[in-house]
Amino acid sequence: MTEHFRKKANARIKGADAVFVDVIITAAMDKLVGGSWVGGEIVLTDTALTFRPNGLNKMIQKGDMDATFSVDELTGARITGGFGTKIIAVTLANGAEFEFRCTKAPNVLATLSDVIENA
C-alpha cells in the first residue's frame, strides 16, 4: 500500500462536542457551518483517505472525530477558500462533502485528484 501524503490538518467534523465551556460554541458551529474544525492528521493511501484527531483535540472534544473514506467513495476534490491555509472539499459518491485544511493545499489537491482519477 502506497502512502501518498501524511499531513497535519484540520477537518470540519460535525458532532465534535466540547468537553469544557465552549459547548454552546461547538453546537452553534455545527448548525451554522456544518461542524467544528478539529486538529489532527490526514493520510491518503491507495485505498483510503483518513483523518484522525490529535491528542489535544481528543482531550477537549468528545464524539466520533475519526473519518475514513475508501478511495472508491471519492468522486472529486477542489479548493473552496480559506484564510492562510486553504480548504479542500472532497466530494463523496453519496453527494456529501468532507472538508479539511492544511499547508500546501494545491500540492495536496493535485495528489488527491490524481489518486481519485486513477482509482
Features:
119 residues; alpha+beta; PH-domain like; 7-stranded antiparallel beta sheet; two-stranded antiparallel ribbon; 47% strand; globular
Distance between the termini: 13 Å
Mean pLDDT: 85
CATH class division: Mainly Beta
CATH H-tier superfamily: Pleckstrin-homology domain (PH domain)/Phosphotyrosine-binding domain (PTB)
The Cα radius of gyration reads: 14 Å
Uncertain residue ranges: 20-33
Quickly give the structural class: alpha+beta
Please list the strands of the largest sheet in the order they lie side by side. 6-4-3-1-9-8-7
Count of the separate structural domains: 1
CATH architecture: Roll
Helix content: 25-40%
Note the total helix count: 3
Query: Quick one: biggest sheet?
Result: 7 strands, antiparallel
* SSE order, one letter for each helix or strand: EEHEEHEEEEEH
Shape: globular
CATH fold field value: PH-domain like
Number of strands: 9
Percentage of residues in DSSP E strands: over 45%
What does this molecule look like?
By secondary structure, the protein is α+β, with helices and mostly antiparallel strands. It has a single domain, classed as PH-domain like (Roll), CATH 2.30.29. It is built from 3 helices and 9 strands. It has helices spanning 23-33, 55-60, 105-117; strands at residues 3-13, 17-18, 36-45, 48-53, 61-62, 67-70, 74-81, 86-92, 97-102. The model is unreliable at 20-33 (pLDDT under 50).
